[in-house]
Structures are given as C-alpha cells and as structure tokens.
Hints:
70% of the residues lie in helices and 0% in strands. The protein has 223 residues and is mainly alpha-helical.
Amino acid sequence: MTAGRRDWWVVVGMTVAAISAAVASFAGLRGLALVAGWPDRLAWLLPITIDAYAMTSARVWLAGTIGSSRARRFARANAVGAIATSIVGNAGYHLIATGLVAISWPIVVLVGAVPAAVLGLTAHLHALTTVATPDHEPAPAAADRPEPRTEVRTRTDVDLLNAAREVDARHRAKHGGRPISRDGLRAALRIAGPKATELRRRLAAESTKANDSTDRKEASPRS
Length: 223
C-alpha cells in the first residue's frame, strides 16, 4: 500500500467505534446526572460538557501548533483528566443502576461541581493558548549572568617537562643537589602517577647525559 494513502476500512471502523462510544458515554453520563438530582431537561449537559472539554484539550495537545509548550502540557493533562472523568462517571452510573453503590452526598457534590470545574479549566486553557508565552525562559540580565569560565589551556608534554625541570632545579638548590622524587613531581605539578614517573625518568636521563658530558670534557687533554 502506498505510504500516506488512507485505509477506508480503518476510517470506517474508527467512525463506528467513535459513534458507539459517544452514544454509550452520553447515556451513562446523562443517567448519572439524573440520579444525582439534575433536572431531566438539563441532564444532557453533563456528557456534553465533559466530551466537549476532552475534545478541546485533545485538540490543543495534539495539534502542536496551538499555544506554547506550557499550554500543550496543560492541555495534555486535562485531556487525560477529562477522559478519566468520563470513564469514572460511566462506571459510577452503572454501579448505581445495578444497586452496588448507593447515592450519597459526596456523589451529588462531585457531579454538581463538574460544570464549574470544567469552565475554570477551559478558561485557563484558553488564556494559555492566546497569551504569548515563550517556549524558553528569557535570557538572564547581565547582572544575573554567571561569570564566564576562564578557559584552561591544556598543558603539552613540552610544558610539563619544562615545569618539571624548574621544580627539580628548585628542589636541588634547596636540598643540596638531591633530585626531586616522583611523588614530589606529582604533587608539585598536580599530575597523575604514571606521568610523574615518565617525567622523573626523563629528568634522570637528562641529568645522566649532562654528567657524562661534563666528565668527557674534564678527561680531554687541555690545549
């Protein structure tokens, strides 16, 4: 089947399921309104209110182009809440109709509070979709911005070797010509143990080479 082509069997199935669910939900919620004390001429408003609110919230949530990300998050929560309210309302009506649950004042209060709650939530959702709210927080003022981090230059092997030579020279001057140890290099240069070992080895090689050169010069005949 070509990508993007409609499968009319799926469309027909969805339509039939939607109509059946809407009619069944309407009957259940209307019956709940009746047993909760709503007048017969107004009982149909309960299912209309809940279903209209569910469709409005789902539209804002799923459209992706209405309102800010904050509005879509609020719409998603309320779409799920409206669907859950419809499910609970239908289940409650059938429990009452079969005599498993008795009508009590909390049920009457909750059912009567639905229109007012939906009105408030819908008004808030409308405000979120119409008021220009940026998806991202505004950039902080210059005074509130953190100080920029100072860029730390990575030390190369040459830099470390030169620093090790300086540290070793200071150590020799202070300790009667004794070379600095591996642990001393590691602490002074704040480097890892293997790197300190490598530098200590290179310093020792340079020292040996320098001593050999001095000995050869002293052993050579003078002009």
